[in-house]
UniProtKB/TrEMBL annotation:
List of residues that carry 4-aspartylphosphate: D57
InterPro entries: CheY-like_superfamily (IPR011006), NreC/VraR/RcsB-like_REC (IPR058245), Sig_transdc_resp-reg_C-effctor (IPR016032), Sig_transdc_resp-reg_receiver (IPR001789), Tscrpt_reg_LuxR_C (IPR000792), WalR-like (IPR039420)
Residue ranges, compositional bias (Low complexity): 236-250
GO molecular function annotation: DNA binding
Domain HTH luxR-type, first and last residues per copy: 149-214
Pfam families registered for this protein in UniProt: GerE, Response_reg
Keywords for this protein: DNA-binding, Phosphoprotein, Transcription, Transcription regulation
Protein's name in the database: DNA-binding response regulator
Superkingdom, natural source: Bacteria
Region listing for Disordered, in residue ranges: 224-264
Biological process according to GO: phosphorelay signal transduction system; regulation of DNA-templated transcription
Length: 264
């Protein structure tokens, strides 16, 4: 009888998550023991269920997959994590690897290729999708492009991106702090820094910028008005203290071929 590895699936798209569960159930060596819809839930289930392997979506609402992977690896360094994502650029790959993921797999791969990645990391190896590996090699050979004007998303640190997206979704400083395990005062500093860098003066402008980046679909995506002590004030005349560069929140991405395979 084949040994079954205990698998936790963290994916916010129900169809893809259910499809992965069904296909893995047919594999004798894996047993799905839990499902998470966001990074915070993934952290909680990782502690209570003690899985051997986690399939981690990187683009989830609230606490994203990179932050969740880092938190899980700090507490359970032996658990294996395979990142599932549509992002193959160098920044995402490096941040995910720094967070401790063992595999990086694009969602447009076949299910068989995902199984290869899962088996590789369970053997203690690192695994990158062929396209990601090719992109990284090409980037190394050709070097970085000449520096030019940075887009709004590029001038934010990784942590500022996480805070920016959560605030754009309508969360208060207190709620954002609970997601990221930071104090409301620290979140306020990140928030002020984001607004300064993007030349934003109020919450409406912040939401409009988020929509222009594709992080939100409309103003209706914004939650209820924040509490009085969390309302966005006009920018101070002095530049806020710079925020440390930490793990961030990737933008939402379209459904990929793996999801079609999984649910089809």
């Amino acid at each position: 009888m084949n040994i079954k590895y205990r698998v936790l699936i963290a994916e916010d798209h129900d169809l893809l998550r259910n499809g992965l569960c069904s296909m893995l159930a047919a594999q004798g060596e894996y047993a799905v023991v839990g499902e998470a819809r966001d990074g915070k839930e993934a952290c909680q289930l990782a502690m209570t269920l003690a899985p051997d392997l986690i399939l981690m979506d990187l683009s989830m609402r609230g606490m994203n997959g990179i932050d969740a992977s880092a938190a899980i690896k700090r507490r359970s360094p032996l658990v294996r994590i395979v990142a599932l994502t549509v992002h193959q650029n160098e920044e995402y790959v490096r941040e995910a690897l720094r967070a401790g993921v063992d595999g990086y797999v694009l969602k447009d791969v076949s299910f068989d290729e995902l199984l290869v990645a899962m088996r590789a990391v369970m053997q203690g190896k690192k695994h990158l999708s062929a396209d990601v590996y090719g992109y990284m090699v090409g980037s190394f050979i050709t070097g970085r492009e000449a520096a030019g004007p940075k887009k709004a998303w590029d001038i934010l640190t990784a942590r500022e991106r996480s805070v920016f997206k959560l605030i754009a979704e309508g969360r208060t400083n207190r709620q954002v702090g609970q997601y990221l395990n930071l104090s409301p005062k620290t979140i306020e500093k990140y928030r002020a820094s984001v607004m300064h860098k993007l030349a934003i003066e109020n919450l409406t402008e912040l939401v409009l910028v988020a929509i222009s980046m594709g992080l939100l679909t409309s103003l209706a995506s914004k939650c209820a008005e924040p509490e009085e002590d969390d309302r966005v004030a006009r920018l101070p005349s002095t530049r806020p203290e710079p925020s440390p560069s930490e793990t961030g929140e990737p933008p939402e991405a379209p459904v990929s071929r793996l999801s079609d395979t999984a649910v089809g």
